[in-house]
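EI: anyone free to look at a 290-residue chain?
SC: sure, send it
EI:
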Amino acid sequence: MDESISIALQKLARGDYQGMLAVMDRAISIDPSNPRSYSLRGVAKSGLADRQGALTDHNRSIAINPHDSRSYNNRGIVKADLGDKKGAIDDYNHAIEIDPHLAVAYINRGNAKSDLGDKQGAIQDYTRAIAMNSSLAVAYINRGNAKSDLGEKQGAIADYSYAISIDPLHPPTYNNRGIAKSALGDRQGEIDDYDRAIELDPDYIDAYNNRGFAKYKLGDRKGALADCNAAIAIDPHYAPPYNSRGLVKSALGDKQGALEDLRTAAALYQQAGQLADYQSVRISIERLRF
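SC: here you go
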């Protein structure tokens, strides 16, 4: 392997995108005809949020070598990040045509399909990736998410559990499994999962909010209030904990405090463009006012 590419891959493994970019800039100045250098520089630019620059580099890589599955896969990732999900799927299709055993391309195509609402198509792609490599925790996690979206909570829990057996140190998997357990009414089970997520990441705001709401449903209003407060302390500009705390305060008889929290949640949802959540909170406010 070319030394510069080897160094770039080492920096990629450490998340050193700036260093990776500098190495690839030098490599391209020496040999501007190496498609791998453009592809890796595109990955570095993507990691630095320069998606247009990344797209330009991946286009250059593919122009030099139109038979590199990795370049199509990487360009698909950039297109997906730019909101062009259909264009991303086209690139993943090309990657898979070139290399039918490129598991990551199936995972990425599944993600794009899921974003477009094709949950069954996404599940099929994640399943293909798992068939190629059964140790890909992300494939189980994403398949669990798609199943959960389709209402297949037991199947989702099975996938999350298997992902945890592969990688027991990934907080979002516990949080997602807790949400699936919640839908099945397993209150203590979901709290146990949120506990583990928070243990692994003490700043996991969604896990605090979810645990608070679970405690609220179990009648532990003081515990619920403490979790909502913890979530708000982590990010005072995040709407969901205010919504949850408003419900808890209402249950505690603090009508004025509940209204203040719900109005804050509504304002934050509106600022974020989450209009469905905004309307839902407005309904709660109106019900509480009368």
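EI: Residues 5 and 37 are 7 Å apart (CA to CA).
SC: 👍
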